[in-house]
TrEMBL record:
It holds the Pfam family Mito_carr. Solcar repeats lie at residues 19-104, 119-213, 224-306. Belongs to the mitochondrial carrier (TC 2.A.29) family. The chain crosses the membrane at residues 22-45, 75-97, 125-145, 185-206, 226-246. GO terms for cellular component: peroxisomal membrane. The keyword Repeat applies. Gene3D superfamilies: Mitochondrial carrier domain (1.50.40.10). SUPFAM superfamilies: Mitochondrial carrier. Keywords: Membrane, Mitochondrion, Mitochondrion inner membrane, Peroxisome, Repeat, Transmembrane, Transmembrane helix, Transport. This is Mitochondrial thiamine pyrophosphate carrier 1. It comes from the Eukaryota. It comes from Penicillium egyptiacum.
Amino acid sequence: MSQPGAEPSKAASTAVQQSDNIAHALAGAGGGVLSMVLTYPLITLSTRAQVESKRAHSTTLDAVRRIVQREGISGLYSGLESALFGISVTNFVYYYWYEFTRSVFEKAAIRGGRASKKLTTVESMIAGAIAGSATVLITNPIWVINTRMTARKSEAEETLPGAKKTKASTLSTLMDLLRQEGPKALFAGVLPALILVINPILQYTIFEQLKNVVERRRRMTPKDAFYLGALGKIMATSLTYPYITIKSRAHVASRDGPKESLNGSLKRIIQEEGWKGLYKGIGPKVTQSAITAAFLFAFKDVLYDMMVSARRKGRIAK
């Protein structure tokens, strides 16, 4: 028979954990938005380098000049609105499920009498896999639209001089896609995206294990999070970049184009463009990913601490 007050105590503990999960999710979403705004031009450059496979981009600087000359500075921010919405939803979903899974493992560790409740490497990978898979399925349509918007300028280059150019909004891009290709197009690239769950698995596993090392010596700071986040992302992105390229190509593929398996796409790219085709745009992508991840982890820690502090003040006020 349970002791009096045991159930309310358990319910209170669950409520606190749920609140903490949401705080992490909101902090992750906010950190993602801030970091995205700072690094979005590099996202534009890397996306175009990936999908414009037939056009040689000699250098990143040349790509910047072409975009600015053709579209103005705003061209570097094409699709930003959908990207901000996408990253906020992506990070909210990811961090919520990651923290939820983490809490399950931590409770199991306590019940099992383990010396430390910190996640092991395997537990970090499982938590990342669950969170990443949920995130991909929920947010893939957002990123399809964003990739279409950032890549559409390859067609604009063919416009006759002096012709009026119109900028497509997120809504118009969505409506055009649904009208021309149907709802199924919103899930283009889902399979490579699910495979790419290995990217955040590697990133967060590296981050968590390095974080554990730091916390054995001292308290983790936003500066530590900045550097560890960048390191984890550099390693993860470098290892998974070929599939990042395939996913970007799938997002902009024509509905009339040939349907290929992942292996088929890999072989075709290698045959037509060589091995370097799999790494087109890797320079700006790795740079952008590392900087974005660094700012994300730093901002997230600060925002999370602010929310926890505000929550405590709210309790005291009551």
